[in-house]
Amino acid sequence: MEAARRGDRDAFNELVRSTYRDIYALAYRLTGNPDDAGDVVQDAYVRAYRAIRRFRGDSSFSTWMYRITSNCASTHLSRRFRQRTEELSDEVPIVDSRPEQDPSLRAEAAVLRNHIDRAIRTLPDRLRQVVVLRDLHDLSHSEIAAELGITTSAAKVRLHRARQRLRTVLQRTSELDADQTEPTAQEAPDEGAS
């Protein structure tokens, strides 16, 4: 860290290598799109490189990068919203591709992850940021508050609201899935037939 602050590019590159996976995952969760996530990550590391000499070390480098990435994602999403002319596809690739042993569990996990990703994307940016930082990156309420420049109470309130909205969206999704798997009157077996 000290070498990077003195301008050592190799040291900064090592910091990038050690944090890239988590930073990309955060950017992906915040944007819901791999191309946008790549743009946000690139912008975040450029900003970090330019500001590394001013990094005071009050938090870890990765926590500092979470804040920069959150800010870059918010800026990127605002810009994209103003420029958007077409709807994005609902099909989003899964970032975590580590296979489990049971193919049916992998398929169920993929469906659940897709539902959660979709539900997270329905949240307004300020709620999405809090739920991603808390539930996916395990930051405390006070760390989230510091990252987003809000009070700890505001972070708790936003997290509560985000979880309520997610619960509602996921319940609706579950009910829709259940309705689609029940046989229709034509498909139901005729109990009187022999």
Helix-strand layout with pairing:
Elements: H1 2-5, H2 9-31, H3 34-51, H4 61-83, H5 103-121, H6 125-136, H7 141-148, H8 152-181
Report a brief summary of the structure.
This protein is mostly helical. The protein is built from 8 helices and no strands.
Structure characterization notes:
By secondary structure, this protein is mainly α. It is built from eight helices and no strands. The longest helix has 30 residues, at 152-181. The termini are far apart.
Task: Tell me, briefly, the overall form.
Answer: globular
- Total helices: the number is 8
Radius of gyration: 21 Å
As a percent range, the share of helical residues equals over 70%
- Derived structural class: mainly alpha
Sequence of secondary-structure elements? HHHHHHHH
Query: Spans with pLDDT under 50 lasting ≥5 residues?
Result: 184-194
Nearest-integer average pLDDT: 80
Secondary structure: number of strands:
0
Q: What attributes characterize this protein structure?
A:
194 residues; mainly alpha; disordered C terminus
